[in-house]
Specification:
about 425 residues, mainly alpha, six-stranded mixed beta sheet, 6 strands, about 5% strand
């Protein structure tokens, strides 16, 4: 795949260098779009945290509502707009949620390239150069949609459409809590513009009205629908997410400044030569990164496939309605479906003792995929409450470890051992 990408880059470089002055505002962004699509295919990596949202989406599509477990009205997400979007393909067409989410996030990343092209051709090429950040550990997440909305708000403000900017900002806030920073910056921009008489005071007023049209009913709904809120608007640091946002904004600003500088330049031909050269060289930087990250991408995809198999094993063999703890694993929680109730405690959580001691999950499992060796260690937190049970994958020297509750261990191990895919091997 990397070799194909290099070949496509050379073809793109040749076309852009020869035809940059004649392409206008459409040709170069379309070529950049092809390059960005290739990066989505190379780097596409769905992080484990995305599967927590997918479990909510699966319950909505099945008619159970926006809940993690049926009947438990707890808001465990902070990306409402993205949740609604990824639910639609499943609810309307029966499409696979994970596949639909990856396609939608890729489409949003390509949308960022197209929208950057509205600022300048150079910005489109530079955005395509960094679009791999929208796929590596971000595929299927709300990050590309959020960046697209940030660009859309900026474009609406620069083209003097404050009402549209307000609506788009509301969607950004409903996509990520970070949208509040965008909202504050936009209000400040409009207020300063009105104070300096570059626009009327209708601009900030219209902006706020556009935002409140969506934000108010959403806030009313979430406070009345959920018994326990997620603690929104807490910010969640994510290097890949912020890297793509920062790189895209830098690409737009740099591209805009260079193209504005080119117009009054006394040597436009020389500038036209080096601008695409610099852009294409920056695109080429992504290939060493691709070669370095490709093994990790393939390994993570393999681990997710193994986790899906383990989840199906648990969902098929455990009694319906059983409570299990996945230790925070989103892919495991999504994979077991609605037949099982899932709790996801973290060791640093104040709810950890409540989950383990009071909710009493019948079985606990941690980690993703299979391990290369039999693991018989028991977490001290589970001592006296849980036992260790290890299972060997048929046809391969790969293991999975589960922790059944002591008083149910014999029955649960017997049920799990009936599956031909895995065989119970007691710890020495």
């Amino acid at each position: 795949m990397v070799i194909v990408a290099v070949a496509v880059w050379f073809a793109l470089a040749a076309v852009v260098l020869c035809a940059w002055p004649r392409f206008g505002r459409t040709g170069v962004p379309l070529l950049a779009l092809a390059f960005a699509l290739l990066q989505q295919l190379i780097f596409s990596t769905v992080p484990d945290s995305a599967f927590l949202t997918f479990r909510y989406a699966a319950n909505i599509a099945a008619g159970h509502g926006a809940v993690f477990n049926i009947g438990e009205y707890v808001e465990g997400y902070t990306n409402f707009a993205w949740l609604v979007l990824v639910t639609l393909p499943k609810a309307l067409f029966g499409a696979d949620i994970v596949t639909g989410a990856v396609v939608l996030s890729s489409a949003c990343a390509l949308g960022c390239v197209l929208l950057a092209g509205r600022f300048s051709r150079l910005a489109a090429v530079l955005t395509a150069a960094v679009s791999g950040l929208a796929a590596y550990e971000c595929a299927g997440t709300e990050t590309p949609l959020f960046v697209l909305l940030v660009l859309a708000v900026g474009y609406a403000l620069t083209t003097r459409h404050p009402l549209a900017a307000g609506v788009l900002t509301a969607l950004a806030v409903m996509t990520r809590p970070d949208g509040l920073i965008l909202a504050g910056a936009a209000v400040l921009w409009l207020v300063l513009g009105a104070a300096r008489r570059r626009s009327t005071w209708w601009a900030p007023v219209g902006y706020l009205l556009g935002a409140l049209v969506l934000v108010v009913p959403w806030l009313v709904w979430r406070t009345t629908y959920y018994e326990k809120l997620s603690g929104w608007p807490a910010l969640h640091a994510s290097f890949p997410a912020y890297a793509f946002l920062g790189a895209t904004l830098a690409a737009v600003v740099v591209g805009r400044l260079l193209e504005q500088h080119r117009k009054p330049s006394p040597t436009p031909r020389a500038t036209r030569r080096w601008a695409p050269v610099v852009a294409l060289l920056l695109c080429a930087v992504s290939f060493p990164f691709a070669a370095y990250q490709r093994p990790g991408v393939l390994d993570w995809r393999s681990r997710l496939a193994e986790t899906a198999e383990i989840s199906d094993w648990l969902a098929t063999r455990l009694p319906p309605g059983s409570i299990i703890s996945t230790g925070g694993g989103g892919a495991l929680a999504y994979g077991v479906g609605t037949r099982l109730t899932v709790v996801t405690p973290h060791r640093d959580d104040e709810d950890y003792e409540f989950v383990v001691s009071l909710q009493e999950p019948a079985l606990t499992i941690t980690g993703l995929g299979y391990s290369a060796r039999q693991q018989c260690d028991l977490d001290p937190a589970y001592a006296g409450l849980y036992a260790v049970a290890t299972f060997l994958r048929q046809g391969a020297h790969e293991w999975v470890t589960v922790y059944p509750r002591e008083d149910q261990a014999t029955a649960l191990i017997k049920r799990l051992d009936q599956d031909p895919r895995l065989s119970y091997v007691p710890c020495p």
